[in-house]
Write a structure and sequence with these properties.
Elements lengths: L6 H9 L3 H7 L1 E3 L2 H7 L3 E3 L5 E4 L8 E8 L4 E10 L5 E6 L4 E5 L5 H9 L3 H17 L9 H15 L2 H17 L1
Antiparallel strand pairs: 1-2, 3-4, 3-7, 4-5, 5-6
């Protein structure tokens, strides 16, 4: 959720974000096979993950993440380099939103725990639907009105059925007849 719509403030918040927030911004979508097997749609990129570039000049390139730069919000892939004018090779930086994770580095126990906590969105929806169905099946005592209240309600409806408006119209017609004589 954004707390402001001012672009300058949003950029300030992004570039002054603490490390734990920056780590979340470095998330990328999982491939369809990986997402179905792991039960998560996105995960933050880590060193050792294999990713495929989905946008830009290097679209289709697949490589292992060699470095994650939280300060610049960029990742660097093994084999993705360009040659400078003086002949030296430098790694090209890629934004994590432009890649797709093809395989995960699960050496870290914390990352395994994160995957264990995440579930597929379909499963969450099914659980919520089951809970709402159970609530509908149970009739609550609060929804039932006492018998005395129902009789009072019926009396008010009967009173409303009486044509008070028509009587007023009849009296006005009688007055008109009297004026003509």
């Amino acid at each position: 959720m954004q707390s402001t719509t001012n672009p300058g403030k949003q950029r300030k918040k992004l570039f002054n974000a603490p490390a734990h927030i920056r780590h979340k911004h470095m998330a990328a979508p999982l491939s369809t096979e990986l997402a179905s097997s792991k039960g998560a749609k996105t995960l933050p990129i880590r060193k050792g993950d294999t990713v495929r570039i989905m946008r830009g000049d290097n679209k289709g390139f697949e490589g292992k993440v060699s470095r994650v730069d939280l300060k610049a919000y960029r990742i660097y892939l093994e084999g993705l380099t360009r040659e400078k004018v003086d002949g030296t090779n430098i790694f090209l930086a890629v934004h994590p939103s432009k890649v797709q994770i093809r395989s995960l580095n699960l050496d870290d126990k914390w990352r395994k725990n994160i995957l264990g906590r995440k579930t597929a969105p379909e499963k969450k929806d099914k659980k919520q639907k089951d809970k709402s169905a159970k609530k509908v099946e149970k009739p609550s005592d609060r929804t039932k009105a006492p018998v005395e209240d129902e009789s009072e309600i019926e009396e008010t409806f009967e009173d409303a059925d009486e044509p008070e408006v028509e009587e007023a119209e009849e009296t006005s017609q009688d007055d008109d007849v009297g004026d003509e004589e």
